[in-house]
């Protein structure tokens, strides 16, 4: 291979600027984490609500929740992102539409967060639903039998166990949202993948660039995985089979 | 206390209960028996509205279960229920299992609920397990905790849905002992069970169900002496022959 390796490239200054390439990557990493974490909050909150509603007896509520899941799960993520960025602003009322297109601060960032949050909320919802439905029917009955209302039964009986059960798939989802945040470069969010492309073009050291970026993604995703593993350990129920080692 | 009037229930086209009527007066112990699939578990779950029914009505303590205006949670808080598979809340300690209903439903203070819980645990012989979790107890112990959980709500009557069917033989008696004691103290009880020894000892009446209908509803001596229906005779001869 006729390639000129240069691992010192990260500390070199970018062309026409006084920062180093490392600055670019660190700044990109910051945006990646910001997009992923913000979207994760939306995904977790909304996904939990929608997933719970999918299991309630009220047909309207469960139907609405099902519609949410189907809508956000049946369209490719990248297409959704482009829809949010180019199409949704056009559909807004005129004043709001103008504001979004011309004045909204950090428009790309918020678009990416909303898009990724909603996309992932559909997946989280399915996992939460599966967790609730994996509990025996008797658990719900036991909650109701001591006089809990249905919301109390969910709050005190069903959801605490359902969430414990779905921590492993939720961990995957948390890692997915970090990795999926890379699509945000398509609408110009200055996140890690965007910065990587910029560095590759600017420095012409593509291999080092993408290897470094790979490592950075790996570290972030792996950290997320460790945090979730800690939560899983902390929330383990003594004597419960699914939590046994 | 419990008045069941012509209850019928369908799952889709399938009729699971046909015109069931009976009653449990205050202080009475009524055992419901019958082959599996006869609808006895379904019937007892109708009593506190855990299973909806399409026809007839059930009156518990002068409150109609079938009336859509009835506040079912409020009613259920005072009707204790013990399930076949215990259904303790696995993520809560034994004490929490006994206090959560008292605190969240009855509005008792934590301290008072705790006192009541410990007293009941002592009563079912499990004081030493107060801080453990359900998964760390044996089946018999879990069922006694479930009994204590129901009693913690100061129920006006108790429903038992096959409380010993999921237990190993050597654990059945520890649960039955508590139930016998409860019956002798005058608790109103409706008990779905195959434990005919228990029925003989404490039941005032025995109800025999088959195919979703109440076939026989008789005083205990009468039921074990000469059941009127042939179906009940066959059932008894099968389960009493060993």
Features:
heterodimer, A: 245 residues, mainly alpha, MetI-like fold, B: 242 residues, alpha/beta, six-stranded mixed beta sheet, four-stranded antiparallel beta sheet
Identify the most extensive interface between protein chains.
A-B, 23 and 34 residues
| Terminus-to-terminus distance of chain A | 48 Å
Spatial ordering of strands, largest sheet of chain B: 6-7-8-3-9-10
Largest sheet of chain B: 6 strands, mixed
Describe it.
- The complex is a heterodimer of chains A (245) and B (242).
- Chain A is mainly alpha-helical and 245 residues long.
- Chain A has a single domain (18-237), classed as MetI-like (MetI-like fold, Orthogonal Bundle), CATH 1.10.3720.10.
- Chain A contains ten helices and no strands.
- Chain A is flat and about 70 Å long.
- Chain B is α/β, with parallel strands linked by helices and 242 residues long.
- In chain B, 38% of the residues lie in helices and 25% in strands.
- In chain B, the strands form two sheets. Chain B has a six-stranded mixed sheet, with helices on both faces. Chain B has a four-stranded antiparallel sheet with strand order 2-1-4-5, with helices on one face.
- Chain A binds chain B through residues 136, 138-139, 141-149, 152, 156-157, 160-161, 164, 237-241, and chain B through 45, 48, 50, 72-74, 76-81, 83-85, 87-91, 100-101, 104-106, 132-137, 149-150, 153.
What are the SSEs and their pairings?
The complex is a heterodimer of chains A (245) and B (242).
Chain A: H1 21-53, H2 59-73, H3 77-91, H4 94-102, H5 107-133, H6 137-145, H7 150-165, H8 167-180, H9 192-203, H10 206-234
Helix pairs in contact in A: 1-5, 1-8, 1-9, 2-5, 3-5, 5-7, 5-8, 6-7, 8-10, 9-10
Chain B: E1 2-11, E2 14-24, E3 29-33, H1 40-47, E4 55-60, E5 63-64, H2 72-76, E6 79-82, H3 94-104, H4 110-123, H5 139-151, E7 157-161, H6 169-184, E8 189-192, H7 196-202, E9 205-210, E10 213-219, H8 220-225, H9 230-240
Parallel strand pairs in B: 3-8, 3-9, 6-7, 7-8
Antiparallel strand pairs in B: 1-2, 1-4, 4-5, 9-10
Helix pairs in contact in B: 3-4, 3-5, 4-5, 5-6
